[in-house]
Amino acid sequence: MKTSDFYYDLPEELIAQTPVEPRDQSRLLVFNKSTGDLQHKHFYNVFDYLNAGDCLVLNDTRVLPARIFGTRIDTGSVVEFVLLKQKEQNVWECLAGPGKKAKVGHKFTFSEKLSAEVIEVLDDGNRIVKFAPKGEFFAVLDEVGQMPLPPYIKEKLQDKERYQTVYSRELGSAAAPTAGLHFTKEILSQLKERGVNIAYVTLHVGLGTFRPVKVDNVTEHKMHSEHYSITQENADIINKTKQNGGRVICVGTTSCRTVESAMQKFGEIKECSDDTSIFIYPGYTFKCMDGLITNFHLPESTLIMLVSAFAGYEKTMNAYNVAVKEKYRFFSFGDAMLIV
Questions:
Q1: Does domain 67-144 have CATH number 2.40.10.240?
Q2: How would you write 88-123 as a 3-class SS string?
Q3: CB proximity list for 331: less than 8 A, separation 6 or greater
Q4: Are 221 and 213 in contact (CB under 8 A)?
């Protein structure tokens, strides 16, 4: 299976630069994976396709305003840092650019409340940076940081909260679980009233989610690692749904990777906290997920491969081509697809 098999032609004007307001007004392509049948709806129509006894699995991670600009104390050079992973208190693995201006021992200031020093350069070019905040680190970061929007979004985000889901609470992601951006608190409340179960899992999304697949053979791609956790309470909700014959519908590929990683490791959903580098592509047998709400993903990405594994390669590529023809909005701030 070649990476090029997952290419589709996308006009640049279909890449959404700003989110739709209100959230649930985005379009929804309803995709029957058994028949390949497609229906054109809006996200607020999602009620029509979820049944009492089903379970929605939501990723409650919250995006860090992880993009910060530092001025090098000795030269005045400006370097962009993107926080990727906390190593210990106030010590983070970061992207840094331009890297030649951020070597070991170089010190930076970001504001009156935040300074830092590069203490290590890793083999892949990432930096280990020790920060010195005046006050609680995350509070200071919220003041100085910007949302690390994907590189294909050129517009400035007017409201930071628009790149967060309405149910985000566990701080730690470098990117949003974007399928969840369409939900409002009202929709979630109404779904509960109709008997749809809601389970929360946490997977902190890394910037590796945007990393292109650079090998020709899909199976040779090395997947990035991300941290996930599931509480016993939420594991019980998912397990009971399966036992009672309900469907487990994951909101986003991150929720999918979380539950499938747990099933792969334990044979059931149970309380756990671990790292996963699960790579799902056609040929994979799903062990937990019965339905998926997701956005439209980049050509040749691991995410379109995951969708193809679930819905079938030919049906998925056809759905994408129809979405292009019908001028759906693509990627992080774009429209949604419901696959059942």
A1: yes
A2: ECCEEEEEEECHHHCCCCCEEEEECCEEEEEEEECC
A3: 15, 16, 150, 152, 153, 178, 295, 296, 297, 298
A4: yes
User: In this predicted structure, what is the pLDDT of residue 85?
Assistant: 85
Contact 38, 319 (CB under 8 A): yes
Hey, do 3-63+159-339 and 67-144 end up sharing a CATH topology, with the first three levels equal? no
Distances (CA, A) of 82 to 68, 138, 174, 188: 6, 14, 8, 32
pLDDT above 90: residue 206: no
Q: What is the fold, at CATH topology level, of the domain defined by 3-63+159-339?
A: QueA-like (3.40.1780)
Mean pLDDT for the stretch of residues 154-163: 92
Half-sphere exposure of 82 (CA within 13 A, CB side): 19
pLDDT at 212: 80
Radius of gyration of the chain (CA): 20
Supply the DSSP symbol for 169: -
- Domain chopping of the chain, boundaries: 3-63+159-339, 67-144
